[in-house]
Sequence to fold (462 residues):
Amino acid sequence: MIPNVENTSDLRSVIHGNVILPGEGSYDETRKIWNGMFDKKPGVIVQCKGKEDVVHAVKFANKNKLLIAVKGGGHNSAGTASCDNGMMIDLGLMQDVEVEPENNTARVEGGCLLGTVDKATQEHGLAVSSGIISHTGVGGLTLGGGMGWISRKHGFSVDNLLSAEVVTASGEIVYASKDDNPELFWALRGGGGNFGIVTRFEYQCAEIGTEVYSGPVIKRFEDAKEYIRFHREYVKTMPDEMTIWMVIRHAPPFPFLQEEYHGKLVVLIPCVYLGDPEKGKELMQPIRDFGETIGDGTAMHPWVGWQSAFDGLVDHGARNYWKSHHLKNLSDECIDVITDYAAKMPSNECEVFVPHMEGAPSRVGSGDTAFSHRSTPFVMNIHTRWRESSDDEKCMKWARDFFADTKAFSKGVYVNFISDEGENRTKEAYTPEVWDRLGKVKSDWDPLNIFRMNQNIKPNGS
Ligand SMILES: Cc1cc2nc3c(=O)[nH]c(=O)nc-3n(C[C@H](O)[C@H](O)[C@H](O)COP(=O)(O)OP(=O)(O)OC[C@H]3O[C@@H](n4cnc5c(N)ncnc54)[C@H](O)[C@@H]3O)c2cc1C
Fold:
């Protein structure tokens, strides 16, 4: 049922933000999400300004039996931030950040983008452990896990979450922390948007200063096989302060990359070192010395700058299809499959992205939070990205085949990197024990599955 203007007048009278119906001013702009594959048309959009607006929106949706989609940063590649005909609850106006430098904590409103949080925390040399693209939303990112450049040292976002303010499926405001509603708090740390709408997150921040030793070293794609064999062993010897990832993609025109390689397939090896830059440089030297280095952008960079360095490569609007695994290892056979598929990328915006994740996250117990697959060393993301719908089939087939041929090397997946792949795939993001416990928490907090535009966890028994 699509509400008409008449029956939204009650809602308009209580909402401090905006109620937007199809055809009204900013409707088309507001319903847009990051992944251009999705063009959903909600029956009504409520742009909330604060938790009370969220309460009113949820109650209105329940009363009118409207499907609810929650938009944080709108980044989820599965397109779950929007829906057809129902209600989009857009948290984009909720961007407040309060930092308490005396105890290194930050209270962050549920619609914040990572860039907003970085800007506020960096005024005190602090950072929230989160993701690597500044236009991602903290909401979806945190509730799924949240991994980035400082996770090896400081844990995932969920490992630094101290409390959450939540609007429940029945439209009540509750708090979750180790002491308040502890089962809900457990489920929020990895179970996604299944349990309520988080209007405020409280995080423990890390003291990292305002500049970090960071940047990519770049290798020729022709040397990728040999390099990755070295890489898989070398990164495992690194202290937690050093994070070294690996990306195969067509090279942007970086000023520090030899010009003949601009636009060519290359291996980027971006790093972040939390500590003395001389030590960071020393730790990266064996990477520079292995085979030929064709570019080196490592230096001290402002944290805020580094956190947005790759934003332009993944801006809003393109068509995207993601497949991902946790990798048990990077065996020679797996490396052969990776390089074979990389060589036939269907567009020059695709990436194969291999973060190394061992460190603080792997020392947290598998059932301590709902983020349960923590022991695998690498993640592999197949980021397929293109512009024209006529290329959909070709690009998605490449990703699906690549994924199928690397499945044997995988164990589990990060819920935030799943596309629209169905319940069995969502299940693979969790151990069986965690999946079952999440179902129980869902039964307690959202028995009617009001919050189902997500990687859905159904209430047990339904
Ligand atoms: C370009 C790009 C880069 C990325 N980089 C990283 C990275 O470095 N590290 C990483 O861990 N992940 C990364 N991701 C994945 C990212 O964590 C997920 O896409 C995540 O869902 C984005 O959150 P969002 O709020 O922007 O998304 P949205 O699409 O707005 O939300 C996704 C889902 O989360 C839920 N949700 C969002 N906000 C709330 C809230 N406040 N309360 C309740 N539910 C909510 C809803 O169920 C919604 O359907 C990246 C994604 C993209 C597209």
Summary: Residues 392-406 form the longest helix (15 residues). DSSP finds 14 helices and 20 strands in the chain.
